[in-house]
Design brief:
10-stranded mixed beta sheet, 14 strands, alpha/beta
């Protein structure tokens, strides 16, 4: 049921028994006496805040939190987590601290707080200290570091034979050994279950008896598993663009990702057919697109960002199309396609393919996606291409190849968060990376605690997509007012194409290498390029 403003939301709360019961349950949960909650003795105490090293952003403060590398051995090696916060802009109305769980895996929560605070609504910035951190292995929290020479040897993810499959397995093993040696012991403890313990230590260090949390994309996996581990330590939790960690098999995972990506392509075609301002309006969009894929496969398509160089089929799908789907920039995508279609073909050259993304240790340690041999791999690729015929080189397939042979510390399982308060699960109907069926599944797994809030629009991210979504989420976070079950909000109107919603979509699941200032120039050490938004989170 659409919500058009805070006053409407509160009137519904007053009238609807479901709303009253949901709100009452949240308030009672927060007021009933509970055992004191403390951080593990192995976590350090109070955070020592100081201005961050960014003169352009003086309001941001930074600190470090020392935690065990392996929470199962709290007296062993330690690492310092980088933490950042911005204080509530209205101290008199302050509710407490809200911790943001960054996506990726590989996004920097510190960067989000320091440089991209507009990602959060004005009301949330007014009422909460906004806090985030660089998860272990990321940014300034003991980043994963590998040999640049070895990374440059990455084989193509487009495996063509059993020998290619064997070579990829061998390469992955070499890369893991190199990264482990250069990174240190944290390399083997990067899974989300470890980060859940880090998050609880941060909650306690902030002086919060219960956690207020907003996780986006891959950050929803952290939030959901925190609620599962510490259900009675949750005050409020928003899971935005939701990962479903119960997907059991490699085939199920790849099929769901292909289906949600293809849905976004179909929505783009539908929009272009009806929008006079689409640069491809009146043309067969699929035919033009397939022509570009063919040219890219022959090495004849110029990369718009690097004139004179060819653009691979994989980059055409993941760097061009998927980036625009994230941002809901359909007009921009149509213009880009029209420009490449009209461009002069490059001289024929060997097919240029995107290098296999580095074995992303966080993702690989959280997802058990086994592939027995090349025959099974080829079957999976054929299934993906049949499910998403317009997007044949999707990054989830690359990631399955990147994880071949990797150990999994935190494999998929169904959620069990019994005892948690209402948790708000927010998703767009047409999200290119975390499909709506995943959100429905997670809400169901949460049982009585799961409250699904549907955005009837597009893109990766939803909580600030118009006043209906923003006010429903703000009311939940600040006042624990839970929307009635079945609540949905209309898509944001648009004038010229679809609206690009600010910085939404800047955190995602699987994507392109993260920009980093931590490359050690002149040496062989570089941070392992984690997933970064522009495609797929």
């Amino acid at each position: 049921m659409p919500l058009e403003g805070r006053s409407a939301l509160r009137r519904i709360a007053a009238r609807g028994t479901a709303m009253v019961l949901g709100a009452a349950m949240a308030v009672i949960t927060s007021l009933v006496a509970a055992p004191a909650v403390h951080a593990s003795p192995s976590a350090t105490g109070a955070l020592r805040w100081a201005p961050c090293d960014d003169p352009a952003k003086p309001a941001a403060e930074c600190a470090t939190l020392s935690v065990p590398v392996d929470w199962a051995h709290p007296t062993g090696p330690r690492l310092d987590l980088a933490v950042a916060r911005r204080k509530a802009t209205d101290p008199g109305a302050r509710v407490g601290s809200m911790v943001f769980g960054p996506g990726g895996p590989g996004d920097s929560g510190v960067e989000m707080v320091v440089r991209r605070i507009s990602r959060f609504s004005p009301e949330v910035r007014r009422r909460f200290d906004i806090v985030s951190f660089d998860p272990r292995g990321v940014g300034n929290s003991n980043p994963v570091t590998c040999s640049s020479d070895l990374l440059a040897e990455r084989p193509s993810p487009e495996l063509k034979s059993q020998s290619d499959f064997d070579a990829t397995m061998a390469y992955n093993k070499r890369l893991r050994a190199d990264c482990r040696a250069r990174t240190g012991p944290v390399f083997d403890h990067l899974d989300t279950a470890q980060t859940v313990r880090d998050l609880d230590a941060l909650r306690a260090a902030l002086g919060e008896r219960k956690l207020t949390f907003h996780g986006s994309s891959y950050g929803t996996l952290l939030g959901a598993q925190y609620a599962e581990t510490y259900p009675r330590r949750v005050r409020a939790m928003v899971l935005e663009s939701v990962m479903d960690h119960s997907v059991p098999t490699t085939r199920d995972f790849l099929r769901s990702q292909a289906a949600t990506a293809q849905d976004s392509f179909q929505e783009f075609v539908k929009w272009c057919d009806g929008a006079a301002n689409c640069a491809l309006h009146g043309r067969d969009v699929r035919d033009v697109w397939q022509g570009l894929l063919a040219r890219a496969g022959r090495g004849e398509l110029e990369d718009p960002a690097k004139p004179g160089t060819s653009l691979s089929s994989s980059d055409l799908v993941n760097k061009i199309a998927f980036r625009k789907f994230y941002q809901v920039d359909y007009a921009g995508l149509a213009t880009a396609i029209a420009g490449m279609d009209a461009g002069k073909p490059l001289p024929a050259s060997p097919t240029s393919t995107a290098p296999l993304p580095s074995a992303t240790p966080v993702f690989c340690s959280d997802w058990h996606l086994p592939v027995r041999d090349y025959r099974e791999y080829a079957s999976l690729v054929a299934m993906v291409n049949k499910t998403a015929p317009d997007l044949p080189y999707l990054l989830p397939v690359h990631m399955a190849a990147a994880c071949l042979g990797a150990p999994t510390a935190n494999p998929q399982h169904r959620l069990d968060a019994h005892g948690a308060p209402p948790i708000l699960v927010s998703n767009a109907l047409h999200d290119p990376a975390t499909g709506y069926p995943w959100a429905v599944s997670v809400a169901r797994q949460l049982g009585r605690s799961g409250v699904l809030l549907t955005y009837e629009g597009h893109g990766h991210g939803s909580v600030t997509s118009g006043p209906c979504m923003e006010e429903a989420v703000d009311s939940y976070l600040t006042d624990l007012v839970v929307p009635p079950r079945g609540t949905s909000c209309p898509a944001v109107p648009f004038e010229s194409g679809l609206v690009t919603p600010g910085e939404r979509g800047e955190d995602g699941l699987l994507a392109l290498p993260v920009r980093s200032s931590r490359c050690a120039l002149g040496s062989v050490l570089v941070p392992l390029p984690y997933a970064r938004p522009t495609s797929y989170a």
